[in-house]
Amino acid sequence: MDSLEHLPLTTREALSGVFGSISLAAWVFLLVPQLIENYKQGSAEGISLTFLVVWFIGDILNLSGALWAGLVPTVIALAIYFCFADTILISQCVYYNKLNARREAARKHSTQSSTSEDEPLLSRQYSNQYSNIGLPGSHRRASAASRRSRESISRPDSLPSIIEEGEGKAWIKNTLSILAVAALGAAGWGIAYKSGAWTPVPPEQENDEDIAVGAQILGYASAVCYLGARIPQIIKNQREKSCEGLSLLFFMLSLLGNATYGAGILFHSTDRKYFLTNVPWLLGSLGTMIEDATIFVQFRIYGESPAASAAII
């Protein structure tokens, strides 16, 4: 133990520690913006439940692989935290979906009752009924459109300038949140290093132990889940031509966490054995960055509700 404490801290190892700590901070706060977004909207229609379920399965496989491989306690603790946080977010989404489904059923029942009592309104009631039938998310877009229409009447500014200004402020607020999380992670590493809670570990020492084949298989399976999880969300956004209900900060934190996680591994060592051992986790983190970039493009193309996009941590 004393030999580890007196190891010289190289620039590469320091960067590995800083990036790893920033990644940890990003993962801790990752799901908070989407939880806040769902609460503010009173709905979870914006996010794909399939996306969350597949991601949850990936986290379970990741935790199983980490336990099997006997990885460091911080990795295992983070995997447990993720499973817990996933459960909360999925439960919230299921709750809002069921609640809104009951409200919609009650509204339709009320509409049908009023139609039978007032026959001259039949054509208008049918028109309203059919206008609410469509792709998932059409209610959100219709309500958002009507809300923006009312705002444009009450204010002299043009609608495009209002939306552009709102989106610009959202990006600035989210960027400041990202910088705050990065600063928190870097400061956390500095405190851990100064207190002796974090010490550099020689890569050759880690390479002496082989990870079980079963743990490697679980690692690859979790990577496949992580890579496939975002596909339903991308398809949903494309089908509905909308990103409303999604937290932009959620995906920005995901990009930060994945990028710094991969950087932390690569700065630690580029030894062939060490690299091959971490391939599943590198694929799961760096691979999803491409999909996150795709979602960023969708945010830019389809836009979002400016007030909803800036869910600050």
Automatic annotation (TrEMBL):
Keyword NAD listed: no
Subcellular location, record wording: Membrane
Membrane topology: Multi-pass membrane protein
Recorded catalytic activity of this chain's protein: L-histidine(out) + L-arginine(in) = L-histidine(in) + L-arginine(out)
Keywords: Membrane, Transmembrane, Transmembrane helix
A Pfam entry, by short name: PQ-loop
A single MF term (Gene Ontology): basic amino acid transmembrane transporter activity
TM stretches of this protein: 14-36, 48-69, 75-97, 171-191, 211-229, 249-267
Annotated GO biological process: vacuolar transmembrane transport
Primary site of residence: membrane
Protein name, entry field: PQ loop repeat family protein
Protein species of origin: Patellaria atrata CBS 101060
